[in-house]
């Protein structure tokens, strides 16, 4: 019996793809990573099927590459470097439980932002979401990738809001983390499933976070949710340079005044608001160089009164720092409601906003301490100038994380087909310079993996040792990270 027949016995022939054209599409990616087409694409519907697929792959030493989100895929972590089987979780779409009292949701990896956000609203809840996630983006994948979220005051750890999860390791063994690790199936488990630490003295959920599918296949996860505000007011704090970004954010977060809190430059703001290319050029010219966006939220009890109190603190803090908060967006008056809608939802249009005007986009993102944010902006400006890339086209997004203890810095470089080689070299040089200047690439996709791990030989040896224990045959996404 060949491989296809064995897998068909597990998932059914309707859940297997062996069409060469479709298989080739899984090896294409917008980032600078090349890959090989997989042998098959398999769609499991439950944990037992996933476990059987992993055991077959172990038996024949066949690589497995997990995929959960829909296209486009930007980072190369789902490109099958060594061929093998694509395990596509998009048909595992159950929302297993929504708990408004304890504020969590348990979901399978195929559940997307476009599906979960409206479902939670029906229960008076919301996700602490990343900025403009694709509607087809898997929520579980997003949390495993540690994508930054918009409300730093509710983030107590870089893995928040990920809580507990169930995983099938490369050995084929089933495992549950944290307070979900008790005996018995999920349906009868009486633990609250919201304590992510353990079992024992090891935080296994950290072991799986950022692993790009190289350590295990997650079959469900518990995600922390928040109460849905009954009233939200959005404010804009324009600043002229990157040096003025951190002080107002630091003061506002220390006093826990704001909910959503982020920074966009004029190119980024124009790209998400513009209706067409002409509108984009006009907005980019009219908007302030940088805008700090903050939201004040009122909930079930006296929402207007709560917002009035928070607004008083907001104005006092801005006055003490020498900036001003506006309810209208300078340079784009009348589009404030559109901005508020974008901050609360996934991006459900085609093409994705990063690909709207030029067709391609390359991202550079990393973590920074508050004191070095402006320096990294200056470094990027110097590098793009060196490569004759138009500096005004660089889209920058800065997101405070974990109550402002660290900052996510992201630079998006849109380009067309004629600029491919320039952007490729710019991406490599800028990444190397930023790493050398202590930018922390905590999610080392593609080419970044070699740049990061060559400076971390001791950690790399430990990771390889752990890989040999939990995936001894190296079947899980080989070729990624340092594996």
Distance between the termini: 31 Å
Largest sheet report: 6 strands, antiparallel
Number of helices: 15
Percent in helix = 25-40%
Give me the Rg, rounded. 23 Å
- The helix/strand class is alpha+beta
Number of strands: 17
Going across the biggest sheet, name each strand in turn: 12-14-13-16-17-15
Entry summary:
This protein has 15 helices and 17 strands. It is an alpha+beta fold.
What can you see in these coordinates?
The chain is α+β, with helices and mostly antiparallel strands. It has four domains: 3-90, Uridine Diphospho-n-acetylenolpyruvylglucosamine Reductase, domain 2; 93-227, Uridine Diphospho-n-acetylenolpyruvylglucosamine Reductase, domain 3; 231-344, 2-Layer Sandwich (Alpha-Beta Plaits); 357-442, 2-Layer Sandwich (GMP Synthetase, Chain A, domain 3). The protein has helices spanning 3-11, 20-25, 47-60, 113-121, 139-144, 204-208, 246-254, 266-273, 277-286, 303-321, 336-344, 373-386, 420-436, 448-453, 457-470, and strands at 16-17, 40-42, 64-67, 85-88, 95-99, 104-107, 125-126, 162-169, 174-176, 216-224, 226-227, 231-239, 261-265, 290-298, 360-368, 395-401, 406-415. A six-stranded antiparallel beta sheet has the order 12-14-13-16-17-15, sandwiched between helices. A five-stranded antiparallel beta sheet has the order 5-6-10-8-9. Strand 8 and strand 9 (174-176) form a beta hairpin. It is globular. The two termini are 31 Å apart.
